[in-house]
Write a structure and sequence with these properties.
- The complex is a heterodimer of chains A (433) and B (172).
- Chain A is an all-alpha fold and 433 residues long.
- Helix content of chain A is 76%, strand content 0%.
- Chain A has 21 helices and no strands.
- Chain A has helices at 6-19, 24-38, 44-56, 62-75, 78-90, 96-109, 115-131, 138-149, 159-168, 172-200, 214-225, 227-236, 242-260, 266-299, 302-312, 317-334, 337-354, 359-372, 381-390, 394-417, 419-428.
- In chain B, helix 1 packs antiparallel against helix 2 (47-67), helix 2 runs parallel beside helix 5 and helix 4 runs antiparallel to helix 5.
- With 172 residues, chain B is mainly alpha-helical.
- In chain B, 73% of the residues lie in helices and 0% in strands.
- The chains are: A mainly alpha (433), B mainly alpha (172).
- Chains A and B meet through helix 1, helix 2, helix 3, helix 4 and helix 7 of A and helix 1, helix 2, helix 3, helix 4 and helix 5 of B.
């Protein structure tokens, strides 16, 4: 590959256009057109790759459907009931609301596949609860909501895992299973930090809910609590494909909001379907751009060249994974997560395969990295959302995020070194890898 | 006159939004039908798969062409956001002109590809691929027109604003 090749020109063009602020999907399509032009190839290939790629990759349809499911959950009163349930269970401990925040995130993680949707859906209510009567500093409440939302797409379902499955051909079902233990591990590490802070900073205790009221509160939250069972049960019994399961999740959320809680008007429904369609179109453009650009990358044999180059360095799988972690964490500070998944990760996959790294393990490690990237400054979408909701300066939230960030990086190190933490559950349920 | 045009544009926008929402709604319905047919009537059907895939292409390209706003698109905006308004004007012009030129240059070849696809039809619904793929042509033309307008504004109107990252349509 010479310096002045069509490929390097196209990379320079894409990077430059992205830096100038052009939407990344457009930048990738435009840069790929430039490549085809300079290489003397048919520029119709841009359309061919985009259209056929979109048409043939059936699993990607899970993305709009999971987005819809998350939107539908957020309009019903599911959230209130879950909150009441969490409060009844863990509110009685020192730092009760902080635990409520973590536990409700775990439950939400089992229903929704998007961290952004989790924070946008429950963030406001959580923030109000935690800061009422000055119980917790606003920046602390915001930081906690941001870091607990990180768990969302690690515990299944998960939109980033669907996108990873698209670029790696790994099984969505096993990826989902692989995320369960790492997600719970991250939640546990967050609880550890809260326990430590609660004693040192003397966090308040919530008035305990009498135990005899617990069954009633649990009963009211039950339809929402059953959501992960419906969703994951469908996938693992083979009753539905993961893509269909996303549609079932959306239908289930709609059904309990309309039938049981009677809290949805047609206007609400229209607004959430439109909002989901808009988000889907914007991610879809990024996927479309990546399909065209990945064609160029494949024609140029880049992933294989990188794989050969790295083979020359005689890396061990562990060293490679550590390098990937460092690279992705750094990129996560400045880039949006889907972009990393669609552009950077496909280049790394052949090397990971050549080193014998399990694709499900690799996928979960990658997704955890990208999720942590949502709370690392300067560019962290969850930080931005919580800055907006809590109306506190970004830097204050970042300060309070830091202890949790170290805890999550600790969990990341564990799942990187011990693939069993990821692969134990999938193997238990039949994964052959 | 101008007021009338504005309200016309607004209603057109509402209509294109409704079409976008209808496409996702239809896709959702197609999936439910597919599951229902398999279990309730023990009758696996294939056309729902096909319909969903078609709707997905149309949803993304229709949405990108007519509905999704600038601030919702996924971009790298650390540099753009920290630039001064004057610099931002120049940055926007360079990227817009590059995009317009490259999309325009590729248009004839892209048109030929889509036209060529008339020889094939989809498996179940027998929709000719040139019809199915024609949304890409609509998308390219709409993006060119839109960026011409935005570039004109950036050059002679108000300097482009920075984007609010919390509005970005990211699904992670």
């Amino acid at each position: 590959m010479s310096i002045a090749s069509p490929f390097s020109a196209s990379i320079v063009a894409i990077t430059a256009l992205a830096f100038l602020g052009l939407p990344i999907g457009h930048a990738m399509i435009a840069g790929s057109i430039l490549y085809l032009l300079l290489a003397g190839l048919d520029m119709g290939t841009a359309a061919e790759q985009l259209l056929n790629g979109m048409y043939a990759n059936y699993i990607i349809l899970a993305v709009p459907l999971f987005i819809l499911a998350a939107e539908l959950m957020n309009i019903g009163s599911m959230t209130d009931r879950l909150m009441a349930f969490c409060n009844a269970v863990v509110g009685r401990f020192r730092g009760g609301l902080a635990y409520v925040n973590i536990v409700q995130s775990i439950i939400f993680a089992g229903m929704s596949g998007s961290a952004i949707a989790d924070a946008a859906g429950t963030g406001k209510m959580m923030q109000q609860m935690m800061t009422r009567d000055g119980k917790y500093p606003a920046s602390y409440a915001a930081a906690l909501t941001a870091v607990t939302a990180v768990i969302g797409p690690v515990i299944p379902p998960s939109i980033p895992m669907v996108i990873y499955a698209l670029v790696s051909d790994a099984s969505i079902g096993y990826l989902f299973l692989g995320g369960v233990v790492p997600g719970l591990l991250m939640a546990l590490s967050q609880m550890g930090i809260v326990a430590f802070q609660a004693r040192r900073l003397n966090f308040p205790v919530e008035p305990p809910t009498p135990l005899r009221k617990l069954p009633r509160i649990a009963w009211k939250a039950l339809p929402s609590l059953m959501m992960p069972v419906v969703l994951l049960g469908g996938i693992y019994t083979g009753a539905t494909t993961p893509t269909e399961a996303a549609a079932v999740a959306a239908a289930y959320a709609l059904a309990i909001s309309v039938l049981l809680y009677r809290s949805v008007s047609f206007g609400d429904f229209y607004r959430s379907i439109l909002a989901s369609a808009r988000t889907s179109a914007s991610i879809g453009m990024l996927i479309a751009g990546a399909l065209v650009f990945n064609y160029v990358v494949t024609v140029e044999n880049i992933p294989q060249s990188l794989s050969l180059l790295l083979a020359g360095w005689q890396l061990s799988p562990t060293v490679f994974l550590v390098l990937v972690n460092v690279l992705l964490l750094l990129l996560g500070c400045v880039l949006e997560g889907t972009t990393i998944l669609l552009v950077i990760v496909p280049v790394l996959i052949p090397t990971a395969r050549a080193l014998g790294i399990d694709m499900v393990h690799f996928g979960v490690v990658v997704v955890v990295n990208i999720m942590i990237g949502l709370v690392t400054p300067p560019y962290g979408l969850l930080l931005f959302i919580m800055t907006r909701i809590a109306e506190v300066p970004l830097m204050d939230i970042v300060r309070d995020v830091l202890p949790f960030l170290w805890a999550m990086i600790g969990s990341l190190v564990l799942i990187t070194y011990f693939p069993e933490l990821v692969l134990w559950l999938p193997r238990l349920l039949g994964y052959q890898g | 006159m101008l007021v009338k045009l504005r309200s016309l544009a607004r209603s057109l926008y509402r209509v294109s939004e409704a079409i976008l929402a209808a496409m996702l709604g239809l896709m959702f319905l197609a999936f439910l039908l597919q599951i229902a047919f398999r279990y309730l009537f023990n009758l696996p059907i294939g056309w729902t798969n096909e319909l969903s895939a078609i709707l997905w292409i149309w949803l993304v390209l229709w949405g990108a062409a007519f509905v999704v706003r600038e601030e919702e698109e996924i971009r790298f905006d650390l540099v753009y956001a920290s630039a001064r308004p004057g610099a931002r004007r120049v940055m926007f012009l360079i990227s817009a002109v590059s995009l317009i030129v490259l999309y325009a240059i590729s248009f004839p070849a892209v048109f030929d590809y889509v036209a060529f696809m008339r020889v094939e039809s989809t498996a179940y619904l027998k929709i000719r691929f040139d019809w199915l793929f024609s949304i890409y042509l609509v998308f390219v033309v709409s993006v060119i027109v839109r960026y011409l307008w935005l570039a004109w504004q950036a050059a002679f109107g108000r300097a482009p604003q920075e984007f609010d990252p919390t509005k970005m349509g990211s699904g992670v």
